[in-house]
Amino acid sequence: MSMSVAAPQAKGKCAEDNIFAANNRANALAEKIGVDKVTNGTVGSLLDEDGNLVMLDVVQKSYKALTPKEIVSYAPIQGYPDYLEAVIDQCFGESRPDGYIRACATSGGSGVLHHVIHNYSEWGDDVLTSDWHWGAYNSMCIDNGRKLREFELLDEKDQFNFASFKEHVTNMVSKQYNTVIIMNSPANNPTGFALTEEDWDHVLAFLQNIIKDKDKNIILVSDVAYLDYSGEKHECRKFFKKFGNLPANLLVIVSYTLSKGFTMYGQRIGAMIGITSNADVAKEFVDVNQYTSRATWSNSNSAAMKAMVNICKDPERIVELDAERAKYFQLMKERAAIFMTEAASAELKILPYLSGFFITIPMTNSKAVCDIMERQNIFLVPLKKGIRLAVCSVSKKKITGLAALIKAAITEAGAQQ
């Protein structure tokens, strides 16, 4: 038996991340035989048509204009006040919900999810999300002594499975003081699915009803990591209005990140935005989450906050920012359209994709299919129930013909769709 000095709750932990492992193999091969000969469909970052990592021009200019003090200063634990205002404005746009709205800076969207799990669920609790979800949700729950529970995202008509959602929430509310729900919509990772306005109405009406007159709370986390590439700027934000005027025991926390919308992936900056009808809940939100920030990473990235603020206080730069985002949103739509058209021709089933960085192809034996694809220098991410393709990072040239190759690999592997 191997030697271990870790505490009991830490023994056996090991993070072999499928996505980064496949990405590393793709990059190593690209260095050896040339980028043009390798298709890397693993990367959750925007790449242009030449395969270069995108940093928005307006963001580059803002970074280059930072003063030494803006770059190296310690920021306040909660985040700079002008940053927090900018985050709220950028997130909600014209659809700011009614209520007390407070924000705390975090280490990307991951920091938001960590704080929510840590501060709003108890040791041993279940935390609910959909069966199609970003794998790190599970790691965050396990590392905090919680268990990730999954409802079925899609019904037999490929629409939001409200019945499955209701069943799980009902069971959790009956057993737990707090029920934390993570809803990654719009542009769900890994499917590109989104709840409709009507879906949100059903969800919020049900959640209010199930905790009415009960000493129970629901914390609904709206993970909007891919918001800025999920539709027309104002249209895709309309659902936020629905988070206003909710009962005090239904707290909505929006997980907002600058990783995607501002292409600041490695800068690790985001914010948790609390929306509540109750002043005490709003104050507590800042107090407990600020405390946890101090107890984990302390304060957040000063340069990234200041770079965002300098863009957001200049109307001309906002116009530039919106135009660049719209350009890349359009590019991803074109890539996705090629793949979806060819998938239909090849009779390759895909999950309903509306927008965002990823498309998912459901199947059994996904690892074997990915292995076959890798022999053709094509790298994709195997999931439990399918394969994830990053339309954010595969050029139109390389995505052309891909659906037929995946279909052939499924047949070769004896996998089922």
From TrEMBL:
SUPFAM superfamilies for the chain: PLP-dependent transferases
Pfam families named in the record: Aminotran_1_2
Co-factor requirement: pyridoxal 5'-phosphate
GO molecular function: identical protein binding; pyridoxal phosphate binding; transaminase activity
CDD domains xref list: AAT_like
Annotated family: Belongs to the class-I pyridoxal-phosphate-dependent aminotransferase family.
Quaternary structure (record): Homodimer.
Descriptive protein name: Aromatic-amino-acid transaminase
Organism listed in the record: Megasphaera paucivorans
